[in-house]
Amino acid sequence: MTDGSERRPDSHPLSRKAFLRGMAAAGAAPLMPALVTGAAHAATTEAGAGAADFPLVVNGAATAVLVAEADDPAVARAAGDLCADVERVSGVRPRLVRDGAELPGLAVVVGTLGASPVVDRLVAEGRLDVSRVAGRWEASVTQVVERPVEGVERALVIAGSDRRGTVYGIYDLSERIGVSPWYWWADVPVERRDTVTVEAATVKRHEPSVRYRGIFINDEQNLTTWSHRTQETDKNIGPETYRRVFELILRLKANYLWPAMHPYSDFFNKHRENPRLADSYGIVVGSSHPEALLRNGVHEWHPWAAGHPNADGTLPVYDYTVNPTTISDYWRARARENAAYESSWTIGMRGLHDSALETKHATTVEEKVAVMNDIVAAQRQILAEEVGDRATSQIFIPYKEVLDLYNAGVRVPDDVTLVWPDDNHGNLRQLPTEQERARSGGNGLYYHISYWGRPKSYLWLDTTQLAKIWQELRRAYEHRVDRVWIFNVGDLKSQENGLSFCMDMAWDVDRWDADSVEDFVEEWAGRQFGRRHGREIAEIRTEYYRLAAELRPEFVARGQFSLTAHGDEMGRRMAAYQALLDRTQALGATLPPAYQDAFFELVEYPVHGAFRMNLKFYWAERNALAVAQGRGAGVNTYAKLANAAHAKEVALTTRYNSQVAGGKWNGIVNPYPSQIPKAPGRPTVVTVPAADTAGLGVAAEGNANGAEQPLRFSSYTRDVRFVDLFNTGFAAVGWHATVSAPWVRLSTDAGTFTDQTRVRVEIDWDGVPEGVQEATVAFTGAGGEVSVPVKVVNDGERGRRRARGYVEANGYVCVDAAHYDGRRAGGGAEWQRVRGLGRRAGAMLASPSTADPFTRQLAERAPQLWYRVRFVTAGTFPVTVFRLPSLDERGARRVAVALDGQEPVTLAGQAIATGNRGDAWARNVEEGVEKLVAALTVDAPGEHVLRVFMVDPAIAVDQIVVDTGGLQASYLAPPESYHPVFNRHAAQVKWLPDGE
Fold first, then answer.
1. Angle 569-590/534-550 helices, nearest 10 degrees?
2. How far apart are CA 110 and CA 172, in angstroms?
3. Which of 62, 202, 343, 589 is the most buried (most CB within 10 A)?
């Protein structure tokens, strides 16, 4: 049954076809990145009415670029980047002209409304259409105008509503001619060509969805190391690095920065060129939650305290209940110093270096609330006196314990933006009420795609699923959280894909929907590597994110995955990683040399690094199991493989830092930095002394050792099982196998091994009789014999053909939530499939996030999903709903299940982020799912309908598992059960070989 949902038509007609036409007009080479750019975001385009394409470079001559002397320095500077970009493409650099004298017959005219006489005159004459641009925030228009000024026959005019609107129009043109925003930060090559033209269509870039959009450089030890080694050896992140950061921010259509703030970095205002430079680029500089009024407490408080001792000579402490005057003077000095710049002022207070608020003379929550209110009032007075009308952007960030104080009664002025934090793992904790949504200051979001802290840190790779980001950002926007979006990007490098998506969402939140997030990756990859590779890279990245959703590589530890259940759960995961790496490297081998560095940075290193991180723990787990099984040679083999996998991971990172781009990125990537949390290092393994002995050991699938549990087979899933034969010594073991029934098939029935061999066992379904059958496989070698029992349930082809939905087999039913047989909307809400979300191909999301909860008459009123299930056993069984761990600290996280017409059972998930290690919230964010368990009663074997009901909005369901008595313990859900539509053919399981 189809769901009847419809995909919205593309509301941005420039997004694909128009840019492909633009490529053709530009004479793009086959590998040239597709010109699908920011012009398509929140944009409209109008046909050029047959006008000729506008030339930027023809016959070795480049069209000059005109910027009025009166325009903002940020505009002139970006126009200089445009000239450099044209030169990158063509080898010819346009002249940058600051007045209209001596212009040739063609020109690119760049100007801001109200600052460019040429642009203003064209508007006044009705020759430049600025509807939906003039008076808007950061909007712009690009339009070809005939005879704009005397002596110029034709001009490409880029006009912005304000300075950044003009800058974005400039960078949009750069991207349209083939210069990626990541040309420097990820070494994306610029394809050269002699003729450069752009389509003559009028393009309008409307107001962005979110006003302030930016990044927080945080936990930045690697970035600091790299900056000190390669950019400014006398500084630890200074103006030369920030110059590159500012340019990237603008090319990504962003405007906002919280700069680096940790002890190993120079604080931003240490180098006074930094704020001046930011303002000249048009970047709004703010500061994080512990950095009130642009003060970096880590570096600045102690020198200030030393220079402002108490009357008795002691040093003042950073406690407003003890030293309010000294602290206020400290804040005031920075407000006065930076008053001339476009800044975002963080108000409120926390302790130094992101610690909790210190209040010696306020111990109760009520007293601390009063202190915070006094702090906010004092800071507001400082800003009014020192900054005045320029202090238009003020934010209050209720992060960690400050959120508790805010909820307890802190009064934040109405014109201050409330910036709501996530739980540090990508789950929004709390969203504004209707009253808070009506605030004149609006609401913002502080969101992590990189994090240091409890319960575990993820700082190394970009591992947050884009569909997860979409889910949470969409939810924020639906609750009118649209004034500020700031993203914690750690060291910046390795977050290229995730950051690009975040900025794309912030620019136009409606451009990507639940069904098209992977399309973003295709388009983005096409811009970096050529559109013919976009789909392949998108599929690679989607699978990479899916595997990380099972478990982030930074979270890998001992004892997580099973080596014995469900076809070797951990081995299956490694097979998926191996296949992904093979696919990645095969694609990389087809790219020209110029693309190799960018491909390694953006595609191969994340995949390969995650593979190696998981692989070393896979071999370490095999090593531990080998010890427990009493193996001989296998113990040492797996120890060697674990150590080798770690060594290759280290070598891979060394390649990144010392070889890629000629060593440009020396120090930028390091899973094991010295001063911040590390990714898992070399796992501990053991070895045993060699002995000239031999012995046959057997471990059948489902057994850590021996064969107590039989190998189970179903005619629906048509399983492939395994038996591991291993050596208890070190001398070679010869072996052979016999089967008691001709319909039992082995991948091999004889051989010799030193440490182990894996035998695959499957059934000849054409030969096995119907019904329940039993057989044995006997393995003989080294003077011993072990018999492995086999149990087969064969319903025959008629049984398979009669199946209308999922079929119980091997003691369980496993359903992928996105593979539903039907769904029903209700009460203005529905279950929405989100591609690329969760541990499988997609998850079901209760939408919209603003819907009211359903708390009564669920069967009649609530949106529901249903799944047809054929049970072969009756009884009361546990059902586990795997839901993605979203939060709602002002509400609840509930979903309900029922079988047939039975009363729905409501399951309540974790709604609060505790911040503790080892509790339910910690387990949920580490595993990426929360397992909600109820009981279902199957009154009789046969066909039934499993129903899932929405109770609370914005909850996402990934998988549903019913244990009918045979479910083996595992980290992941078992393989999906047979379904005639969604899972008709059982996957042929592949395993990694014993070595590499």
1. 160
2. 12
3. 343
Please, which contacts does 430-439 make with residues 24 or more away whose CB atoms are closer than 8 Å?
A: 430/398, 430/403, 430/887, 430/888, 430/889, 430/890, 431/475, 431/476, 431/479, 431/481, 431/888, 431/890, 432/479, 432/480, 432/481, 433/890, 437/479, 437/480, 439/414, 439/415
Do the Cβ atoms of 782 and 753 come closer than 8 Å? no
Q: The dihedral of CA 12, 17, 21, 22: what is its sign?
A: positive
CB 474 within 8 A of CB 163: no
Q: In the 8-state DSSP scheme, what is residue 781?
A: E
Percent of the chain exceeding pLDDT 90 equals 91
pLDDT digits (tens, 9 = 90+) for 8-29: 223 333 333 333 333 333 333 3
Report the DSSP beta bridge partners of residue 979.
Answer: 983
DSSP at 641: H
Q: How far is CA 714 from the centre of its chain?
A: 38
Q: Quote the Cα angle for 239-244-249, to 5°.
A: 115
In the structure encoding, which two tokens stand for residue 811, read together? 């003691």
Q: Token pair 């770690």 is at which residue?
A: 646
Cα three-residue angle 751-757-762, rounded to 5 degrees: 90
Dist CA 643 CA 619 (whole Å): 9
* Span 428-482, pLDDT tens digits: 999 999 999 999 999 999 999 999 999 999 999 999 999 999 999 999 999 999 9
890 contacts: CB under 8 Å, gap ≥ 6: 430, 431, 433
Q: How far is CA 873 from CA 664, 939, 940, 965, in A?
A: 63, 9, 7, 9
Bridge partners for 451 per DSSP? 458
Burial of 870 from C-beta contacts in 10 A (0-12 / 13-18 / 19+): buried
C-alpha dihedral (326, 328, 331, 332), degrees to nearest 10: -110
Cα–Cα–Cα angle for 442, 445, 447, rounded to 5 degrees: 175
Q: Give this prediction's pTM.
A: 0.94
User: Which residues have CB under 8 Å from 99's CB, separation 6+?
Assistant: 66, 68, 69
Tell me if 712 sits within 8 A of 722, measured CB to CB.
no
666 burial type by CB count under 10 A (0-12 exposed, 13-18 middle, 19+ buried):
middle
Residue 940, C-beta contacts closer than 8 angstroms, at least 6 positions apart: 874
Burial of 153 (0-12, 13-18, 19+ CB in 10 A): exposed
Token digits of residue 148: 């704009």
Structure tokens at 828: 């203005």
Average pLDDT over residues 759-774: 97
The answer to whether the beta carbons of residues 441 and 483 sit under 8 Å apart is: yes
Instruction: Write down the pLDDT at residue 952.
Output: 98
Question: Strands (DSSP E) along 116-181, which ranges?
Answer: 140-146, 154-160
Average pLDDT, the chain: 93
Three-state SS across 381-394?
HHHHHHCHHHCCEE
Q: Distance between CA atoms of 399 and 293, rounded to whole angstroms?
A: 16
User: Could you tell me the two tokens for 670?
Assistant: 């390091």
Is residue 385 over pLDDT 50?
yes
CA atoms within 13 A on the CB side of 485: 29
Residue 639, strand partner residues: none
DSSP string of 884-908, one letter each residue: E----TTS-EEEEEEETTSPPEEEE
Give mean pLDDT, residues 718-745: 97
What is the number of other CB atoms lying within 10 angstroms of the CB of residue 607?
22
CA distance 176 to 37: 6
Q: Which of 388, 266, 374 is nearest to 338 (CA)?
A: 388
- Ordered strands of the 54-58 beta sheet: 61-62, 54-58, 196-198
